[in-house]
Specification:
Strand order of the largest sheet: 5-8-9-7-6
Number of strands: 9
Number of helices: 8
Strand content: 15-25%
Distance between the termini: 39 Å
């Protein structure tokens, strides 16, 4: 069920596979019903965890920026658990074919009925793997570029001009890698039944290879003292505090780390935008506070940020990120 990108779309060609994959991930994990209201108007019912409406609004807003012929309307609905909403999609008469293709794709991915001749063996897992091919290819390229920047940063060492340049370049790459990895996770997962969902054969996400992004990437010569160089991030620290506050509001749990007396693991729901934001924060924090280490883990268990600090900065970390939950296991899994 290919979608032919119309000439009116201004999204760069290189970014189109990722955008389509983001929609595929949404269709595969959250869409419960698809309805054609009129030739130029489709409606989808979606259910999912808290934050679903924000995710849908963000994705559709970015799509409207490059494809202004789309009109998206998000209407929240009642839900016993998580969130439920209606997504109305309208297009001018000249773009009916684009809407038809989008509706067909949403219906196929949400029910696992991707055609067998589209590189699927007819089961849901195969249907998810086909849309994810472009994502994995892009992810491999981005990870290679990220690893090279982290290697350069480690080679130059904190405080040097080369280190500042490499860590600056790593921030957007880390964000894109986390977004891609999260999209891949959603595309290779089987969604669970949501509120009011009658698809009783939906099961939990299947085990998938995880991704780990660590700052620093390796041993750094001359460990820096526990002091933040706020000038290193170009004056972005103030804005970053506000982002941290919003991200920390989504924490599901705080666990101890078995390899650090002062370490902490923060558990989050696996959401595409949240993973991207968290990865950007971790890379940016390392730029100005390189005495610590920050590890992003994205796998079938969800999304996790592991922070390790020297003794002298432990209290500061606790004041910002909190302390392990009382019922936390001795080590994060």
């Amino acid at each position: 069920m290919p979608i032919v990108v119309p000439d009116a779309c201004t999204l760069p060609t290189a970014d189109q596979p990722l955008r389509l994959a983001e929609f595929d991930a949404l269709f595969a994990t959250a869409v419960r019903h698809v309805e054609t209201v009129a030739p130029t108007h489709a409606r989808m019912r979606l259910t999912g965890p808290d934050g679903l409406a924000a995710t849908v609004r963000d994705l559709t807003a970015r799509e409207t920026e490059c494809c202004s012929f789309f009109t998206f309307t998000v209407t929240p609905g009642p839900a016993d658990d998580g969130e439920s909403l209606l997504l109305d999609i309208e297009v001018p008469a000249g773009y009916v074919d684009v809407l038809d293709a989008l509706v067909g794709r949403a219906g196929a991915l949400s029910t696992g009925t991707w055609p067998a001749d589209d590189r699927s063996d007819g089961d849901r897992t195969g249907a998810m793997r086909f849309p994810a091919d472009a994502v994995h290819a892009r992810l491999s390229t981005v990870q290679d570029r990220l690893n090279e920047q982290l290697r350069l940063a480690t080679e130059h060492g904190p405080g040097t001009a080369g280190w500042l340049a490499a860590t600056k370049a790593s921030v957007p790459l880390t964000e894109e890698a986390a977004r891609l990895q999260s999209v891949a996770a959603a595309l290779t997962a089987t969604p669970q039944a949501g509120p009011g969902d009658d698809a009783g054969d939906r099961t939990a996400a299947q085990t998938m290879p995880g991704a780990v992004y660590t700052f620093p990437a390796g041993p750094v010569a001359g460990a820096p003292p526990p002091a933040c160089d706020l000038a290193a991030d170009g004056g972005e620290a103030v804005d970053r505090i506000d982002v941290w506050q919003r991200v920390l509001a989504r924490v599901q749990g705080r666990d101890r780390l078995d390899d650090s007396d002062t370490g902490l693991a923060l558990r989050f729901p696996l959401e595409i935008d949240l993973a991207a934001t968290l990865a950007r924060l971790a890379a940016a924090e390392y730029r100005c506070c390189s005495f610590g280490s920050y590890t992003i883990v994205i796998d079938d268990a969800g999304l996790r940020l592991e922070v390790r600090m020297p003794e002298g900065a432990a209290d500061t970390m606790a004041a910002v990120l909190g302390r392990p939950d009382r019922n936390s296991p001795e080590a994060a899994r």
